[in-house]
């Protein structure tokens, strides 16, 4: 089994060969007005670290630690915002667009290493519904945190102590889900079950998760310092750089999941063709 560094090196090569797909993480990064606003509003030097698993489209925000604007807990939306139809419509539209882009993106990621056309639009049509459900589920699960908007820091910290471990465990258990969706061409429930089965077996799945988080932790501090601390230029350079890094991470994970999943056709690590299992099918 190749090491995480070998896999990531191949992922970078794949990303360079498929740069058009980086437009998706660029678009999603630019659409996150809250994070862009936080970076532009920050004045000073900021160095932080992120610990990220490849459970979704990886963008610059998967690697960059955003400075905290204050001592209160922010859930992004307040109860008052939810009562505003325009704000709610904007949030729903964002989830729908993110789901559509994710469906096309992950479908294309499964095609790209095999040397097949991206078929982005076809993948959006095929996988939009399961990716929408996959996007809505965590939002729905964490929606009670909206009630903490503006809460004192002490209350927020107490809640985070309880919530963060749950989020981390869920991310580990289900990070393979979007890849299995397209590799197996299956439904969301089946992909969730398959990811859970791989996760509970540990082994290569666990080792890859630890290695991936470690790689992100190495890249995150310098990228965070540059993007946040260098006004405007940091964002202008960081967004596309983060998109390429994210594309490399997603492509690396696609190859990895195809390798360890017994029901997926693997990719030839020395080339762009499907393995012999794909030919038999």
From TrEMBL:
Protein's UniProt keywords contain Membrane: yes
Record keywords: Membrane, Transmembrane, Transmembrane helix
The species this protein was found in: Halobaculum halobium
Residue ranges crossing the lipid bilayer per the database entry: 15-33, 45-66, 86-106, 127-147, 153-175, 196-219, 225-248
Protein name: Uncharacterized protein
